[in-house]
Structure formats: C-alpha cells, structure tokens
Amino acid sequence: xxxxTRLIHVPxxxxxxxxxxxxxxxxxxxxxxxxxxxxxxxDGRTVAPGDHAAQARQVMTNLETALAAAGARLxxxxxxxxxxASNRQDDLVTVWEVVRDHxxxxxxxxxLLGVAVLGYDDQLVEVEAVAAVRPAx
Length: 137
Prior knowledge:
alpha+beta, single chain, 4-stranded mixed sheet
C-alpha cells in the first residue's frame, strides 16, 4: 500500500525553511495526535534545567516513545509544533537543530514558537506532532 502522506515543497516560496510547506494525507490513513512531548524523565523530573539542546533531545526521545505506543514513527509525522520558552532567537535555533536532526531527511511542516513559559518547572522545550499511518492490512 502506498504511503498515505505526501510532503509538499513549494518552489515559489523561500527554500530557507528546513521543512516542507505543506503535507497531504490520503485515505485510508489513521491519524495520530500527540500531546506536547516534554523534557521529563521516567520519574517525572525535568531533565537538564537551563539546557535547551539537552531538553530538546529528551523531548524527541519522549515523542518517539509516544508515537511508537500509537503505532507510528517520526517518519509518519505530517506536522509539528515546537515551543521554546525563550525570547532569544538563538535558543529557538538551538532547539530546532535538535528537532530537525531527529527527523533526518523527513521534513514535515513545522511551526517554531518562542513562548513565555511552559507547564513544568524548569521546562524550556515542548513538541507536539500529528502523524498519519497506513491502516493495518
């Protein structure tokens, strides 16, 4: 069965963005919506306070775990939203580089936001995703 998703790169828009500008999901596909993955360890503690890159790595590990529990992988993701508790563009770029590297050649559309605060003590990063997977045969 063919992949139910297609990432759309738009030549009429800037190629500076390190992601596709759009994605389509063709039926039949099962959509998976994740909660925001947070930089928490198995005991619920925020890892690496003050370290955007280390928190982003933990977030991506937790996102992969949540996706796997729903039968999906990073390669199935069709949209992400990346939240960074910072007003510094450098911090956003640091987090984005970690997120981008985890996705490798798969570059789903993404929104990157600097926000004032996130939900857990010392939390700097959160990533939510939407994935589309083929139905089981």
